[in-house]
UniProtKB/TrEMBL annotation:
SUPFAM superfamilies: UDP-Glycosyltransferase/glycogen phosphorylase. GO terms for biological process: lipopolysaccharide core region biosynthetic process. This is Glycosyl transferase, family 9. InterPro entries: Glyco_trans_9 (IPR002201), LPS_LOS_Heptosyltrfase (IPR051199). The keyword Metal-binding does not apply. It holds the Pfam family Glyco_transf_9. Keywords: Glycosyltransferase, Transferase. PANTHER family: ADP-HEPTOSE--LPS HEPTOSYLTRANSFERASE 2, TETRAACYLDISACCHARIDE 4'-KINASE-RELATED. GO terms for cellular component: cytosol.
């Protein structure tokens, strides 16, 4: 049901988005005066999943630092809105897929709207219909016609840097460097684990996430189970996380290794805290991988169709496992084309390769890429 809704919205965007962009070019502009110095109301638009929202947080921080005293509002989706509960300085979070929120965000005046969507049209359409002094977004297609200032979208830049590039056209200085964690320990400690307190091990544990929002990125669940057994052999407890859609695979992995599954039992702030207190996070390219980076955890990431340049964690303590096939990466703007070799780029990653990366992460915390 959840994935069908996402698929429907993407198809709707492709069908009506270009037409709406053309029509909006014929309408009077709903604008107010713009001054960076007097900017007091900012709307940041972030559709999509958890990962993009997490990687947007450094840009949000840069806006807070530059536009001191401004009220910053977020227009998100129900599936990623909880990310913004983990950061400071947000006046309010609305969801465009909650009809009741439209009366709150649609009739407000904004000094600045920053649309962070990379390619789809509908967020740009909404931004154009709102009353604003200035609108900023990516010039990835004809959606650029709906913005006052645009930034080129680079398919090879780390997504944190891509989001920060939106600030260049506004002459907002980028941070000299972006260092994790960019979700504070104070915000994590405010997330009570509730009844999970008695479940989470008090001894060192590794967090496994055997899921991914896109099926083509998933490593076979049997290999996750084998990895979990190998990790238990290193005297590490195993905690398996995920959403309601991951219940079956998480339960199988936990049962095989004598670990603990909390899949479907946590809010996003709770799972962020569980990840932050573990010794290592292991998962495919996913929102929870980026969340693990944001809370300062060491990670092992399995990459297949996704671009390592754009999505792999940066900094010490992170390792990427990839076969490096000539056809990889094939994903573009979140869309993975049909594969003639059944996604061998992720399906053929061996348990031994991932386990070796985990041992490196646990013992030395080094960063690198394991190929082969």
């Amino acid at each position: 049901m959840f994935l069908n809704q996402i698929s429907f919205l993407k198809k709707l965007d492709g069908l009506v988005g270009p037409l709406l962009v053309w029509l909006l070019g014929l309408l009077p502009v709903r604008s107010t005066s713009w001054s960076a110095i007097h900017c007091r109301s900012i709307l940041i638009v972030r559709p999509g999943g958890i990962g993009d929202a997490v990687l947007l947080l450094p840009t949000l921080q840069a806006c807070r630092d530059f536009f001191e005293g401004a009220s910053i509002y977020i227009l998100a989706e129900k599936r990623n809105a909880q990310v913004f509960d983990l950061c400071e300085g947000v006046a309010e979070v609305w969801c465009y897929d909650k009809l009741g929120d439209w009366k709150d965000f649609f009739f407000k005046d904004y000094d600045l709207i920053i649309d962070t969507e990379q390619s789809h049209y509908l967020s740009a359409v909404i931004s154009k219909l709102l009353r604003a002094g200035r609108r900023c977004g990516f010039a990835s297609n004809k959606r650029r016609l709906l913005f006052d200032c645009v930034s080129a979208y680079d398919q090879k830049s780390y997504e944190v840097e891509s989001f920060l590039s939106l600030l260049d056209s506004l002459e907002v200085p980028r941070p000299t460097s972006v260092q994790a964690p960019f979700i504070s320990a104070q915000n994590l400690c405010g997330s009570s684990l509730g009844c999970l307190t008695s479940v989470i091990p008090q001894t060192p544990y590794v967090v496994l996430f055997p899921g991914a929002s896109v099926a083509d990125k998933r490593w076979p669940v049997e290999r996750w189970a084998q990895l979990a057994v190998a990790l238990r052999g290193m005297d590490c407890q195993v905690v398996v996380v995920g959403g309601h859609q991951d219940l079956e695979s998480a339960s199988l992995v936990a049962k095989r290794c004598g670990g603990i599954s909390i899949a479907g039992k946590t809010s996003l702030p709770q799972v962020a805290r569980v990840i932050s207190e573990g010794k290592l996070f292991v998962g495919a390219d996913s929102g929870l991988l980026h969340l693990a980076v944001a809370v300062g955890s060491r990670t092992v990431a399995l990459f297949g169709p996704s671009s390592i340049d754009k999505w792999a964690p940066r900094g010490s303590g992170h390792r990427v496992v990839s076969l490096g096939l000539p056809c990889s990466p094939c994903s573009r703007f979140g869309t993975i084309p049909p594969c003639l070799i059944e996604y061998r780029c992720v399906q053929d990653i061996s348990v031994s390769r991932v386990f070796e990366a985990c041992k490196e992460g646990l013992l030395r915390g080094e960063h690198g890429t394991v190929c082969g």
